[in-house]
Write a structure and sequence with these properties.
Layout: H1 10-24, E1 32-34, H2 43-52, E2 61-63, E3 73-77, H3 86-97, E4 101-105, H4 108-119
Parallel strand pairs: 3-4
Antiparallel strand pairs: 1-2, 2-3
Amino acid sequence: MRKQTTPLSESQIQHDCLAWFRLQYPNLALLLFAVPNGGRRDAKTGARMKYEGVLKGVSDLILLIPKKGYASLCIEMKTPKGVQSEEQRKWQREAERCRNRYVVCRSLSEFKKAVNEYLL
């Protein structure tokens, strides 16, 4: 009998991507970071984060290295069936307007390809 597997969550995909990056590019590990703009929070925490500057739509990961004419690589993580919100599409347009590379990654293999193409 075949074992059923549960699809990976966005969080699990992102974790796997960060783990791979830190092993593959240890000298750049501090320059790839997550943006804490998602997830469930109580009203007080959400209000404080908004007060401190958290913005809806910002990409999940940012690789703060200028390459190939881009200022940085912005990475939006999604599950295979996930879709960008309107806020995410708006933020993508603004990031790209300011010469940032923006990609949507739905798996570790897509992440590896995007990062390697950007860095190499």
